[in-house]
Amino acid sequence: MILQRDVAHIVTDSAFYDLDGYVQGFAPKAVTIPHWPGILAVRGPMLGMALLLAEASIKFRNIDEFADGAEAFLADYCKRHHEALTQWGGPPAIEVHAVGVSPSTGGCRGFYVNSQPGEEDPDTLLSDDFDYLSAGPAPVVALTEVNVPDIIVAPLPPDEFWGEVRASGFGGNLAALDHSAIRRLGTKILKAQRLETGTHFEGGEHHHFVGGFPVFMTLKRDGTITTSIGEAWADKVGERIDPSQDREAERDAAPDLAHMSRQQRRQFERLKRERSAA
User: Fold this and answer.
1) How far apart are CA 94 and CA 88, in angstroms?
2) How high does pLDDT run on average in the chain?
3) Global pTM value
4) Calpha distance 216→9 (Å, rounded)
């Protein structure tokens, strides 16, 4: 999420995968909420995401109501949809990024809401008959309002690559970036996130999490919402995400300059410069 004074941006990938990191398919991770107007993006198990987006859309009439009720709503949601949210074998937890036009201020507001496993009495957790997945403690939910201008990135890329993104110049100039610059920044962040690895369970083999297609959504204070799709990565259903294929795919896609017209060569060189800047 990137929040500016009169506009908010949501940037996501689109890959869904199983516990071992094998891609199951591609689907949106953010949706338009027309009556706010606004956008909701969610991280977590696929079934839990779809249910949450629908319920939150129905429950809250605008972003201000979401700000007032999101913590209680999400805690209750995690209890009611416990089975869908624990399909990965862990406790019920989910993350929500929300932006919308505020009736009270007339501008864009943005929020990051994160549920984490709740605490339980240690003696209860260590007892032989305690089933964490079916009777775990209530989740702890925290809502954070995003300042203007500011950016929320989840998950954070590896430190060395996140440092490169920050060094690219967005730092203190975030408020002044236009749509094209925001798109380039979002692409850099996704590429850095794409290099991160992890596992969903102890002893599991590490794999990459970000893949599919970059998706860019923009909300203006007049309620206009636009969506655009970036260039797809070389990820395939049934396989793990492999960022090492990215450069190979770019090389394979390189055109034959010798058979281009002067105008085509100029256009290709311009696109090449833009991609290098991203």
Assistant:
1) 12
2) 83
3) 0.81
4) 7
